[in-house]
Write a structure and sequence with these properties.
Layout (H helix, E strand, L loop, with lengths): L3 E6 L6 H16 L3 E6 L23 H11 L1 E5 H6 L11 E4 L1 H8 L4 E5 L1
Parallel strand pairs: 1-2, 1-5, 2-3, 3-4
Helix pairs in contact: 1-2
């Protein structure tokens, strides 16, 4: 089993089931002791902002704010640099604990030894 998990979520409210799956898998992995790095790209970028996750609704799914809190408690959340720039999101705008980084960092994390990468 991979000791590290890198998850890139590209979906947001535009594809709620795919979005929820990514956050759920990340939270479960953190709770299982796996080192997790969740990357927000595309429409999921908005969830780096305070209170945006509270607007997300999907029946029979865990609340997105709870999942984000769980992930940040034991893992890392990163907002894509280009995605942030396109949405005019800066480091001062994001939730505490969320970093902004680019493709080079993603590739470095995703290709590290004993790492599994997933894209939703």
């Amino acid at each position: 089993m991979a000791k590290k998990l890198v998850i890139k979520v590209t979906a947001g409210a535009d594809a709620p089931e795919r979005c929820s799956q990514a956050f759920t898998v990340a939270a479960v992995a953190v709770a299982s002791g796996v080192e997790v790095s969740l990357w927000l790209t595309g429409e999921s970028s908005w969830f780096a902002l305070p209170d945006k996750a509270a607007e997300f609704e999907l029946p029979h799914a865990a609340p997105l704010p709870d999942l984000i809190e769980s992930i940040l408690a034991g893992g890392r959340i990163t907002l894509c640099t280009q995605c942030a720039a396109r949405r005019e999101i800066t480091e001062k705008d994001v939730l505490n604990g969320v970093r902004i980084a680019g493709a080079q960092v993603f590739v470095q994390e995703a290709t590290a030894d004993e790492t599994q990468a997933l894209v939703y």
